[in-house]
Please model this.
Amino acid sequence: MLTMFVHELKQYRKSTIIWNISLLAGAAFYLSLFQGLVKETQAFTKVLQSFPVAVRQAFGITLDTFASFTGFYSYVLTFLMLAFSIQAMQIGASIVSKEERG
Model:
């Protein structure tokens, strides 16, 4: 079982490396925005308050924690986990379709 797992990882090495580099670049980009957010916290808070409460609840944005690093990171992590899920789904579908073709 582990041998097949390692074999499939080797087969999709290039795709996985590209996805991981893209996700790291996205994470670095989002986390670089945090510095600007901290400098303009009050203005950003006004922008967030202009959103309807339902939108803030849907995205999990609370005004108190969004200005902290952990709050901002948890918000960014939601989108990164979505991208990781898409990558896993794509690799899984590729492996299953390859198995069915064979």
User: Anything to note?
Assistant: The mean pLDDT is 82. Residues 2 and 80 are 27 Å apart (CA to CA). Helices lie at 2-11, 13-39, 41-50, 53-59, 63-66, 69-101. The longest helix spans residues 69-101.
